[in-house]
Write a structure and sequence with these properties.
- By secondary structure, the chain is of the alpha/beta class.
- The protein folds into two domains: 2-86, Fe-S cluster assembly (FSCA) (GMP Synthetase, Chain A, domain 3); 104-356, Rossmann fold (3-Layer(aba) Sandwich), CATH 3.40.50.300.
- Helices cover 37% and strands 23% of the residues.
- The strands form four sheets. The protein has an eight-stranded mixed beta sheet, with helices on both faces. Strands 1-2-3 form a three-stranded mixed beta sheet, with helices on one face.
- Helix 2 packs across helix 8, helix 4 (119-132) crosses helix 13 (336-357) and helix 8 packs parallel to helix 9.
- The radius of gyration is 22 Å and the shape is elongated.
- The protein starts with a helix and ends with a helix.
- The relative contact order is 0.13.
- The protein binds adenosine-5'-diphosphate.
- The site of adenosine-5'-diphosphate has 17 residues, from helix 4 and helix 12.
- The site of adenosine-5'-diphosphate (ADP) has 17 residues, from helix 4 and helix 12.
């Protein structure tokens, strides 16, 4: 049996430095490993430009050690290592060096400041309407603490299949209504999801991009968790995301949080283009009259205030919630609501063409 030192070194040599082919051992950035009965403290030396990625490295370490040696306790310290400065400054991640997922033309993250505003409903229906426009579409449910895509697509009891390629387990997405689906809800048991810490959730999310057989897609829609968390930051720093769409309801309690999401995506560490804002539950339609139950124009107001495109309004309608509950998104039907989603999807598609041609 390996002693604990060998085990620690084995695990560290599986952890790659961000944006580098080197791991933590081959890059010689382990300064010290202090063994104790109760706790092992690993000191990692980075140069000053690498320091800004220490959170990513720490997350990867926590994830690997938790998986490979769950019974032991580890702590990770970071120090500036001047000796490394010159030799590896080329390993610095640059914004344009984020991972580009092969064969996926566009990754669209759907986000909201608040839960319950209809982010998953919009993600599902946008996916279906883009597919109806003739695009190949995948949908990732990244809402680890409240995955609802399996309910909305009636795949709650399904498990994705796996296949082994070069000693790596590759997930084959579940396919429903022509959309390729992967949900944290189908992968992590419910009772485990709540105890997953940020770093583990972030690492698992990364695998949903890199270890899934997506084949070729025009659009990969990502239903993010609400708010501004570790997961958002990992996603935006690790992958080339085409842009994000913010979902808000008209009320102030929702628009205030949507504004927080806008500033997070505009932050220089995140820096993801904002495709636009969708206002959900904008009005209730009765015959030809629109009733603005939650006030009028809240979404438009913050779009103007922050100079982002207003992509459209989605009415409040019980056919939307019923279809969600029945696992058959309303966009699959042919009615006035599916037309609303069709228009929204066309707006998104056109906006993305414009973004790409800039
Ligand atoms: P979130 O992903 O933001 O937490 P969900 O998409 O799960 O929100 O929506 C929360 C609830 O609101 C669901 O029951 C959904 O069916 C319902 N809902 C969302 N949008 C609408 C709408 N426009 N009209 C009616 N019900 C809606």
């Amino acid at each position: 049996m390996k002693d604990s030192k060998d085990k620690v070194i084995d695990i560290l040599s599986e952890i790659k430095l961000p944006n580098s082919s080197e791991d933590l051992i081959s890059s010689k950035c382990i300064d010290n490993i202090k063994y104790d009965k109760e706790l092992t403290i690993i000191t990692i030396g980075l140069n000053s430009s690498e320091m800004k990625y220490k959170e990513i490295i720490k997350r990867n370490c926590l994830f690997h050690f938790e998986n490979k040696d769950p019974k032991s306790n580890y702590e990770f310290e970071f120090v500036i290592d001047k000796k490394r400065s010159d030799s590896i400054s080329n390993n610095e991640i640059k914004k344009d060096e984020k991972i580009k997922i092969k064969n996926i033309k566009n990754i669209i993250a759907i986000s909201s400041g608040k839960g319950g505003v209809g982010k998953s409903t919009i993600s599902s229906n946008i996916s279906v309407s883009l597919a109806k426009l003739g695009y190949k579409v995948g949908l990732v449910d990244a809402d680890i603490f409240g995955p609802s895509i399996p309910t909305m697509f009636n795949t709650e009891n399904e498990q994705p299949n796996y296949k082994n390629i070069n000693d790596k387990n590759i997930i084959i997405p579940i396919e429903q209504y022509g959309i390729k689906l992967i949900s944290m809800g189908n992968i992590i048991p419910k009772e485990k999801a709540i105890i997953w810490r940020g770093p583990m959730a972030s690492s698992a999310l990364k695998q949903l991009f890199t270890d899934v057989e997506w084949k070729s897609l025009d659009y990969l829609i990502v239903d993010l968790p609400p708010g501004t968390s570790d997961i958002h930051i990992t996603l935006s720093q690790s992958f080339e995301i085409t842009g994000t769409i913010i979902v808000s309801t008209p009320q102030k309690v929702s628009t205030i949080d949507a504004e927080k999401a806008i500033s997070m995506f505009r932050n220089e560490n995140t820096n993801i283009p904002i495709i636009g804002l969708i206002e959900n539950m904008s009005y209730f339609k009765e015959n030809d009259n629109k009733h603005y139950l939650f006030g009028k124009g809240g979404g438009k107001e913050i779009s103007i205030k922050h100079s982002i495109d207003f992509l459209g309004e989605v009415p409040i309608d019980n056919s939307i919630s019923q279809s969600c509950d029945n696992g058959y998104p309303v966009s699959l039907k042919d009615n006035y609501i599916s037309k609303v989603f069709k228009e929204l999807s066309k707006n998104i598609d056109e906006k993305i063409m414009r973004l790409k041609n800039k």
